[in-house]
Amino acid sequence: MEKRVRTRFAPSPTLPLHMGGVRTALYSYLFAKKNSGDFILRIEDTDQNRFVQGAEQYIIDALNWCSIVPDEGIGKGGKFEPYRQSERKPIYRQYAEQLIESGHAYFAFDTAEELEQLRKNAETEKRTFSYDASVRSLLNNSLNLNPDETAKRIAEGKHYVIRLKVEAGEEISFTDLIRGKVVFKSDVIDDKVLLKSDGMPTYHLAHIVDDVLMEITHAIRGEEWLPSAPAHILIYKYLGWENKMPYYAHLPLLLKPDGNGKLSKRDGDRLGFPVFPLQWKDPSSGEISTGYREKGYYAEAFVNMLALLGWNPGTEQEVFSLDELTQLFSFEHIHKAGAKFNPEKTKWFNEQWLQRMNDVEIANRLSTQIANSRKDLTYFIKAVALLKPRVQFENEMLEKGKYLFEAPENYDEQVISKKWKPDLKPFFNSLVAAFASLNDFANSNIETTFKETTAANNLKPGEVLQLLRVFISGQGTVLIYFQCLNYWAEMKWLLD
RNA sequence: GGCCCGUUCGUCUAGGGCUCUAGGACAUCUCCCUUUCACGGAGGAAACACGGGUUCGAUUCCCGUACGGGCUACCA
Asked: Which residues of A carry out catalysis?
């Protein structure tokens, strides 16, 4: 029987989760759900220096907003608790020690300063220093020390790390779910640190131990991990876990809209679009970065856009709910190249979702945003029907259709001075009277009434139409005219 | 520099040997609808990075080059 599919999203709580991370989470979620499996949220907080207050909660809130809800993990619990790596600290050491015993890892006593110096020296000689098979016999580690000396140093409390011993001259390959077979030479892989001097594991060790212990079947992550994948393959092998190794899928990166390079927070600031799902306030600087939610995007639209950035359904449909995405998702349709993010198309997705939203629900939300509104819900529903096709965002309706909810604060003087003549006053008075006597405010009625009244006053529509618009809205060019007279009864200000 | 990944309209992408006169969407332009603004409709401009193979036949397969990206920490 096939193993139950289990995927995980394993962010580190160092920065607020940005849209690239959300996409990784989304694909992991979709794949798990498509295969009736589990989606797990694990927090990789092994770097204690980079801990950011509130980041973990932010991740949970952001995923919740997107409806990418874990079945198991942080904030949810599950049979593999704990799901925070800092709380699993003791677990990792035993595997690092197992690797030492089997000869696949060793203690290294080189200090960070020493290594930095070596890197600097190499740089001046236009080489790169890599802690690997070619130099490890020259360095300060248990491979070169006799066992007693090593034991003594450890007993003395000397700082050390545990490094993976990568043998030279091997070929390492694995099959990536998106890229197919990928081959590396072991010579170019360095002896990665497995356990840091503070006793915490590095990502390399921790994610492998946890993926196996938590029975993860598919590890989906960003392409930036591809170069270290062969080291990971080796760790599985040396730990005797070859048959427990999950499939790996390395996702293409999200690129900045202009130029090249991966999308970063800076691009959002520079180009004026959000890179975060939710607003984030940096706890140390107090700096606020806006989020898609705060900008008025629907979570559905945000998720929809993200899903299509690097994946496609193979058809020409573009608007999908999470459920539909779940049905259709597959690795075969993930594009291999990085995708430049397009803020304009993101707005279009929101527009598509807006047009599909229920008018009554929107009206309910909008009506609470207008203080002291005397308009009833029925009025709001009609206004929404009118405004909705003309905007991309729900909250845009309030701005663009302001005059549907309150009298204009000022009137377009230019139009008035150009078009207004005192002898038009009788016409407007009779128009108001004519409208007031209408009991059916169907568009055609209003338009007919308007035309009849102008004709009766020997006027052409063009002579007074723009003025009418100004009287209604304050503006000479405006969204609507006849339709909005549906709300005649509400527009008392017109009588002045 | 080294290693790895990639390369179809400006952008997201479909297509994976003959069906490609390369399809769709966003953006852009023109027209229609509308005495406004949108929506909508019709149409236009716009791409297979380059060079070699393989093949009867390459956008599609292989190799190289160019270009782009990623990685190269006791960060993830």
From this structure: 265
